[in-house]
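Input (Carbon starvation protein A):
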Amino acid sequence: MTLAPLLLIAAITLIAAYFIYGKFVFKKFDIRNDRVTPSHKFQDGVDYEPSRPIVVLGHHFASIAGAGPIVGPIIAVTFGWIPAVIWILVGGIFFGAVHDLGSMVASLRSEGKSIGTIIKNNIGQSGKQLFMLFSFSTLILVIAVFADIIAKTFINNPGVASASILFILLAVAFGLVNKSVAHRKSLFLLTSVIGVGLMYYFVYLGMQLPFELDYQIWLYVLLAYAFVASVTPVSLLLQPRDYLNSFLLYGLIIFAVLGILFANPEIKMDNQVHVTSDNLGYLFPVLFVTIACGAISGFHSLVASGTTSKQIDKEGDAKIVGFGGMLIESFLAIISVGAVIVLSREEYAMTLTAKGPVTMFSDGLGAMMATLGIPEELAVSFVALTVSAFALTTLDTCTRLARFTFQEYFEGAQGPVGKTFSSNRYISTSIVVILSILLISSGGFTTLWPIFGSANQLLAALALLAVAVWLIKKKVNATFVIIPMFFMFTVTLTSLGIFAWKNFQDKAYILSIIAGGLFILSLVLIILAKKSLSAYSHLPQTQN
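Output:
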C-alpha cells in the first residue's frame, strides 16, 4: 500500500464530517448570528476585539496546534499506525471538534469567560475554584515545557531563532498597519499578501543570519517576550503573529500533500497492532493520552474559551474556527503519521530513539517535498522552522491564558489584594512568569511532559463535563457530548492510576502525589456536577 490513498481517504472523511456531522452539532448548539458576541459587547481594544473569521482561525489554529499534532501521533505509532490513524479520525470528528466548538460556544454565551466560569454558573463556585486551580497549574506546566523546548531549539538551530525574532517584528508592523486599514477589505488582502511574502522570505533570511545565546539567557528572553505578548492589545502582537504564522502551517500542509501525492511513497511499516510497549505501557490508555492535539486536547478548551471567544465577530464564525480548526489539525496529525510510516518498524524504532519525533517529521516530509524540486536541505529546514514557530505560539498564548485564569480566579474577591489580582494584567502576568521560571528550574521536558499528557486529557474530560451540564440545564439532549466525556474520564483516570502507582514504585513520590491529586480532583468535580444536576433529573430533555 502507498501513502497517497491513505491521505486522500483521510481528507475526504474530514471534509465530509464538517458538512454532515458538523451540521448536526451546529444545530445542537443553536448557533445563530443574531446574538451579540462578547467581542462587540465588551470591546476594549486589549482582549475583546471583533475580528475577521480568517484572522481568528489563524490565531486559534496556530495556538492549538503547536508541536502536539506532530509529536504525539509519531510517538503513538509505536502501537501501530492503524490504531493511530483510526483514533485521529474518530477522535478528531466525534471528540475533539465537539469539545472545541462546545467550549467556544459556551464561552460566547458566558461573556467570553473561560470554562471555569461556565463550571461556576452550572456546577457551583467550589467547582470553579477547583477547575481554575487545575487549569492554572496545567498552563504553567505548558509554559515551562515549551520554554525549555524552544530555548534548546534556538541553541541547536540559531537560524530558527533569527527567523522567529524577525517574525515577531513583522507581526507588530502587520498589526499596526492592519488596524488602520481594518475597514478596507481590499487593503487587508494586500497587506496579508505582503506580510505572508515577507514571512517566507524571513525563513531564508534567518538561516543566513544565525543569532546565538546560551540556554539560560534564551529562557529569560522567551519569558520576557511572553510577558509582553500577554499584556499588549491582542490585535497588536498575538493575533497578527498567529495569523501570519498560520500561513506557515498552511504552506507546510500544502507542500506536504503535494509531495506525498507526487512521490506516493510506499508504506513500509507493518500492519501489526502492538498492545504493549516497553517504553510506553499498554495501548489502552496510553494511545489516547499520547495522541492529544490531533484528536482531542484539553488545552484547546482553554484557547477556545480564553482568547478565541473574545475575538469572534459573529457567532456563526465559531463553526469554521472551532469545529473546522480541529479537523484541520487532525489532518496535520495524519500527515505526521505518514511522515514516519514510510520507514520499516526497525528503522522507525531506531530513528525515534536517535533523533526524536520532530526531526523524524522534518526529515520525512522534507524528503517528500524534495520530489517537487525543492532542495531537500531547505525543505527540512522549513519544516523544522514551522514546528518551532508554533511552539513559540503556544508559549505566548499559554501565558495570556494563564493570566486570564489567574484574574478570573480572584473575580469577586474582597480586599485590595484580590481586586488587584483580578484587574491588574501586569501583576497577574508577572506572577505567571515567576512561577514558570521556578517550575523550569525543577526539571525540563522529559520530567514535565508525562505529567502534562495526563493533565491535558483530564482537562478535556472536565471541559466536556462542563459543556454537558450546560446543555442539560438548557434542556438539550447532550448525548453527543456525554459519550466522549465518559470515554475521556475512563482514559484519564486509568492513566493517572497507572502513572501514580508506577511512580510510587519508582520512589518518585512527588509525581505520584500529583497524579493522585489529579485523580481525586476529577472525582470531586464529577460529584459536584451530579449534585448540581439532581434538581434537573426529572425535567424532560428536548430533541433540539
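The longest helix spans residues 376-409.
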